[in-house]
Fold this protein.
Amino acid sequence: MNSSRLLSSGLLVAAVSLAALGTAMAQEKTMAFSPLSLDVPAMQGLSGALSHFAEDAGIGYMVLDPKFDATTQAQQLSQVIETGRVNGAWAITIGAPALRNVVQRAVESGIPMVVSGRPADYGLDAAQPGIAFSDIDYEVYGTAIGQELGNCIAENLDGDGKVFFFGDTSGTEAAKITDDFGKQGLATAAPNATIVAENLSTARLESQQKVSQMLLAHADANAVYASNDENAMGALLAFEAAGLPTPCIVSGGGSDEVLGFVEAGKIYAAAGFDFEGDAYQNFQTLLAMMDNPTELGPILSIPIKLTK
Amino acid sequence: MSHDAIDAGAPSGGAANGAVVKRQLPPDVAILVFLRDRGIFVLWVLLLVIFAVWNHPYFATINNAMLIVSAASLTAIFAAAVATGLFSGALDLSLPGVAALSTCVVGVLLKQFGVPVPLALIGGLGVGFLCGLINGYIVLRGLNPLIVTIGTLSVTSGLAALVVGGYAISGVFELEFMGSARYFGIPSHAYIVAVVYLALTIFLTRTRHGIRMRAVGGNSEAVRRAGLSDQRYKILGFIISAMLASLGGIMTMALVFEASANASPSILFTALTAVFLAGVSLAGGRGSLPRVLIGALVLATISDALTIAGVPPYWATVATGALMIGALVFDKTMTESISARLVKVSTMTVHEKASK
Amino acid sequence: MSKSLENAALRLSGISKHYGYIKALDDVDLEVHPGEVVALLGDNGAGKSTLLKVMSGAHQASSGEIAVNGRKVDRYDPRVASELGVEMVYQDLALIDTLDISTNLQLGKEPLMPFPLNLLGFVDFRRMHEITETQLERLGVRTAPAERPVEMLSGGQRQVTAIARAAVRLFERGKGTILMDEPTAALGYEQTKMVEGLIRRMADTGFAIVLVTHNLPLCFNVSDRIAVLNRGRKVADVPRSEADHSSVVAWITGAERAIA
C-alpha cells in the first residue's frame, strides 16, 4: 500500500515538473529533427547546430531519436506531425518506404518536411508542395571512395593493388548501392587492382583483428577500402602491428581523428557526406516552407566532402 | 499465474470463481491482490491522465490514440512471443533472428519467386514453426536454453543474410494490407494484436494444453509426476514463441516495405521490458497475457508522450528503465505482503470426521 | 489389524542396494497393509531415503523382491508403481505454485466442457473445482478454496495439498499405498497437527502409508508400526504399542535390535 502511494506521488511530482518544462518549451512554431540515431556523434553535433539555428530564428526545436529503426522513425514523426505538435520536420531518413505515409499525411495536413532521398523513394512522381528532398546520393558517395582508393593505388603502387574491401554494414539497399559503386569506382581508377578479401565490421578492434587475420591469407595486400572510420583505423593498426608498410586506405566518413591521419599521410583520403555543411541550407529551406507550405519543395543534394 | 484463479476467471464464466475467491480472502488481502494484478492497468490510466494534461491539446486525441496503438502493436507481438516462452519456462533469445529469417524468406518468396501472398505468409510462419521446433528439440537434449538460443540467434540471422544475399530486399509492397493500412480508422496491426492476444489468452487460461504448458513452466517435475510429457509442452512453448516472432517480423516488413536481415536485438529488449513490466517472471510459469498487452501500451504511451513533449530522447530511455525496476519492486513487495497476511489468517481446519 | 502375507499393500523382501562397494541397504524386509501407517526411522545415512526410493521405483534394488497387493512385480519403476497404486509425496512437494489447488490436483485428467468445446480442449473449471472439493471432503480436509493459487497457501496447506494430490490419484481404485518423505519438515506445531490428522484419517479410509521421518512425536502420534534402519539393515520392526521413546532411540543409534 505504502509503496504504491509512494509510486503514484512520485509519478505526479515527476509529471508536474516535466509539465513545467513542457510549457516553457512551447512556442509559436516548432520544428522536429529526426536523425538516424543520436548515438552517432556527427548527428549529435548536427542536432546541436540546428537547435542554435532554431533559437536564432525564434522557433521551438525538438529532436527525436529513432535509433536506426525505420519503424520507430515513422512512429515518432507521425506522433509529432499528426497531433499538430510541430509545424515542420527534417528527417534524415532511415528507410524511405517506411516514411511514405508520414510524408503523405504531412502533405495533407500542410506541415512541411525535409526528407532524404528522391520523390520516387516515397512512391511519389514528382516534387510535392511543402516537401523538400535532400538527396543522399549513394552512387556518388560509393564512387568517391572507390575512385580515391584507385587513385592511391595508381599513384603509389603502380596500379597493382591487392584490396581488402570492408563493405557498408547497414545491410540496407543504400549499402548495396554504395558498395557496388565503390567497386566500380575502384575498377575505373585502377583497372588492375583486385579485391582479395571482403569483410564487414563496425568496431575498431574487430576491424583490426579481421585485417590481421586476412593478412595471414593475403600477406601481399596493400590497400583497404574502408566503409567507415573504424575500419580505416583498425586496418591502419593491423598493418602497423604486422610490420608492413602503410597501405592505401580510403575511409568513408571523416571523423576528426581520421582527418588527422589523412593530414599525416597515413590515410590517403576520407570521403563523407557533408551533413553539417548541408544543415543550414536544409534549415533555411524548412523555415521558408513553414512560412509558405503550399509551394513546391525543392530537391536538394548533400555534397560529398572529400579530404586528401 | 498466481493470478490464475483470479485472472483466468476473468475472460469467461469466471464470475463464480472470482466471487468465491474474493469472498474468502480478507479485505486487505483482496485489495493487495487487486493492486498487484491490476496495478499496471491503474498505472496506465494514471499515465494517460497525466500525459493528457501535460501535453494538452496534442495528446488526448483519437488520432494520437491510434498512433499509440500502432506503435504498441509490434512490441505487443514480440512481447507475446517472449511471454509465451517464459510461461513454458524458457527465455528464447533467438526471436529477433527468427523474425529476420522469416521476413527474408517472405521477401524472397514474394519478390524473387512471385509466390502469392497467402502462400508466402504461410512460408514465413512455417520458418518460425521450424525454428521453434529445432530450438525446443536442442534444449530438450538438456542444454541451457539461453545458450542454445544465443546460438540459434546467430544461425538464423546469418541464414537471413544468406537468403537475401547480404542486402535488404526493398519495395515489398504486397503486404501493405497488414502494414500501415487502416480499417474503420483503426490500424491493421491492432486487429492482428487483438486476435493474437484473445486466442492466446483463451488457449493459456481455458484449455487443457495451455494450462499444462504453463504448468511445465511453473514446475516441470510436477507435470512429469502427473504422468504427462513435459517435453511436448516445452517444445510447444518454443514453437508458439517463434511463430509469434515470425509474425512480428512480417508485420514490421509490411510497415517498412523492406525485408532486412538485420536481427535487431532492441525489439527483444523492448518486448522484455513490456513483459517484466507486466509482472511475468523470468523463473517461468507466472504472468498474465492481458497485462503484457497493457505493458506494451504503457511503453508506447510513455514514448509517445515524451516525443510529443519534445523531452530529450534520453529521458525516454531512463524513464522506461526506472519504470521497469519500479514494477519489479512493486510486484515483489505486494507478493510478500500478501503471503505474510495470508499465512497470518490461515483458515485451514482439519475437521474431525466421525469415526465409523 | 490382520497381517496375512496375501493382503500386504506393498511388500519388500530381501532388498539390497549397493553403490559400488557401499551397501546402502542390506537384505531388508518390510511390508505395509491397507489401513496401516508404518513409520520408517533411522539416523542420517541409515538408508531410509534409499528404501523409500526403491519403494517408489525411483531406484532399482540390486537384489530382492517387491510385491504389490500380493503380486510380485518384475520390472518396477515410477510409472509401474503409479499404475499399481503406489504414490509418493516428495519432500519438495512438486506443486505448481502459480496454479490453483484444483489444477494441481487434477493435472493430467482435467474435466472438459461439453461438445463441441471439448474438441478444442476447453477445461470445465466449475466441474474441476467441484471434483476437487468432493475429493478433499472425502479426505476430511478443508484447506483453502480450490481456486486459490498454491503460492498463496501456508506451509501446512501446501503439505496437505501435496498429500491430497497423492491420495486423489488413488481414489479411483479405492485403495493404494502412499509413501511420504518427512511430511512435517519445516512445519509449525499446529500445521503438524493438521497433517497428522490427515495421515491418520487416510489410513482409516483404507490406504497403506509409509512415513519416513526424523520426528519422533509424529511417529508416535500416527503410526501403527515402527521400523528402524541402521546402516542399511532393519534393526527393529514392532507395533507402536511395544515401543517407547527410549527404545526407539536405542534402535536408531544402534544400541539395540528388535525384530518382531
In short: The domain at 4-343 of chain B is CATH 1.10.3470 (ABC transporter involved in vitamin B12 uptake, BtuC). Chain B has one domain: 4-343.
